[in-house]
Amino acid sequence: MIRSLLIANRGEIACRIIRTARRLDIRTIAVFSDADRQALHVREADEAVHIGASPARESYLVGEKILVAAKAAGAAAVHPGYGFLSENAEFAEAVMEAGLVWVGPSPASIRAMGLKDAAKRLMDEAGVPTTPGYLGDDQAPDRLKAEADAIGYPVLIKAVAGGGGKGMRKVNAASEFADMLTSCKREAAASFGDDKVLIEKYIERPRHIEVQVFGDSHGNVVHLFERDCSLQRRHQKVIEEAPAPGMDEATRAAVCEAAVKAARAVDYVGAGTIEFIADASQGLRADRIWFMEMNTRLQVEHPVTEEITGQDLVEWQLRVASGEPLPKRQEELSIDGWAMEARLYAEDPAQEFLPSTGRLDHFVLGRGIRVDTGVEEGDRISPYYDPMIAKLIAHGRTRDEAIEALVETLEQVEVWPVKTNAAFLARAAADADFRAGEVDTAFIPARLDSLVPDSMPPEGVWNMAAEAVLASDFGGPSDAADPWRALQGFRANAEADWRVALRHGGETRTIAVSEDAELAGVATASGDTMLVFAEGQAFAFKLPGAGGGAAGGAASDGSLLSPMPGRVIAVDARQGDKVMKGQKLVTLEAMKMEHSLVAPFDGIVAELNAAEGAQVTEGTMLVRVEKGE
Ligand code: ADP
Ligand code: ADP
Ligand code: MG
Fold first, then answer.
1. The domain containing residue 139 runs over which residues?
2. What is the Å distance from ligand 2's center to 248 Cα?
3. Residue 548 falls inside a structural domain
4. Residues 596 and 616 reside in one and the same domain
5. Which of 63, 324, 488, 504 is the most exposed place for a label (fewest CB within 10 A)?
């Protein structure tokens, strides 16, 4: 068994790998960028090596720097985690050439599955059913259009080098094809440096079904059953589960067998995932499930498989990389109960899922279920990396039990002042159709409005805040400096209830609190703010007189501030321009997301303080619009 391991990643996956390595008595070496000096993965590893500046392009994506770190620390092996360099065949090769053990499949396997068109061709040859479509080298727009017409609309245009849901366009009718092709190719060239596309039939009632496979260097390949990852937003997984609802034994056997066949076709060693798309219009049927792509690495959602099989997949990876045979044979593996995972993101669903950065002043995730996280209270969410901060993983005897545990935990998430999608996830998991197993990839888009919670507090939360104020008034420390000690609660008259005046955002209310009211939620005072956590959301209340306003967005004088640190990628207005309310003025990129600042009202661009390519800090005034004709 390898004795030391460098983890070429960060965040929750680095922490996850460290946990298993520690149990196996393997020395762990973390790498970190400037922004991650104090990060949890650095604190948890036995050693840590600095590899460069904060942008991933200057640190986590630079293979040479990671190899230098591995040499310096005397590491015997490199685990790439997921994302970053995990599917980079050149890096895998360089690791091996440096005499280190690569915890992953061979560069040849990575290459064979790296491009979606080549992978599909290979699967066709191996007898694995693939989504009907066009995989040709002739990329002339007319030819692509003719192929799409022949396949029949709707079709999906996909960048062959694509990943992470980028470089994909659904085309509903022939008339849209040319425009969609142009924009897909543009995005593919910008994101992957390769604008080649393939065309696929768009599967109706699509469900994303994937199979965990594992191979060793002795020629063994097993599967660890399927996962369902149909709950997606913008082609990105949000909630995943194992097994797949509505999967019967015969269909499971067929799809898992096809996955093993796919892995064997590329002599696969290590952990991999075969992704399929299923047409679920008539339930899950073996003849309606097609190969989509293979991810040649550990997958974000691997914990649900670990929960139902009782196996530690990182341990399997380390054993296989050390030359050991797979820990279990196929017939020794079985499904125990049901598991669900929700991805907790630092983002604000109410603001179009804008990533949220800053210090985690308050960070309490549920107890009782598995939490894989890369941060703790007091840590900072920087704007440089993926906004996923934790995964909540529930396991139950039945699907209902798993859902219940997941919803309960999500509703108890307490995070402040960074925004999260906890309430959004809780609503999705609690949805009646989801409970009934009625999942497909349109589930979230079709319900977006009802899944995104209102950022204004409901009645009950105002009451909770008021009760908490009264409680702190009476039961709190008798410190004169405590702003809550001052008289916040007062009786309107002898018989009436207690009254408390509170402010939330721009709204002030006087709330009557009956003396026997129960304090149902979680409320806690932090400085001059009373925080209420309810159903996964956080609400901040202040006394009517207290100061402080929100940074970012539009101030009433028409100033547009940068809501987070980021890079200006487009400036669509010039000083003196006449602009209309809602018109896009400046676009920022941060945490892989684009965010546009728009004119708050009709007017003139009075000040412009943004240049394309400029790096800006949070709260920078970028544009000021003045009212006028
Ligand atoms: P990526 O590399 O970005 O993960 P995939 O090929 O795995 O790209 O597709 C991502 C998602 O897009 C799938 O999970 C599914 O929701 C949707 N999708 C992909 N192909 C099809 C298809 N042919 N029909 C319908 N939906 C599809
Ligand atoms: P797929 O979407 O098919 O699983 P990708 O390689 O695009 O394939 O996605 C891997 C996912 O992991 C992406 O959502 C990516 O942004 C995310 N990711 C990569 N590295 C990290 C990390 N260290 N912490 C959190 N998320 C990460
Ligand atoms: Mg995929």
1. 132-201
2. 30
3. no
4. yes
5. 324
